[in-house]
Known about the structure:
single chain; 85 residues; mainly beta; 4-stranded antiparallel beta sheet; 1 helix
Amino acid sequence: MTQRWVLQPRFETxxxxxxxEKFTTGGGLNNIELGLRLRYxxxxxIAPYIGVSFERSFAGTAELVRxxxxxxxxxxxxxxxxxxx
Length: 85
């Protein structure tokens, strides 16, 4: 956007070799998370941000989440400070 305002797309996925019910983790592809963060770089090392992310659990992980009373699809709003040293 500008040298101080930065819009950053984010993508994350997790997979597991085996099922671990203790951690609500199924075998195979567990989840995908997509998001956007908008940050303002006060200095290059310090930048507060706000953002939104969408997470979706799949297959065995989604079933374990449902058994625990959760929803396999979630929207989250995030805020924080990015520190870089």
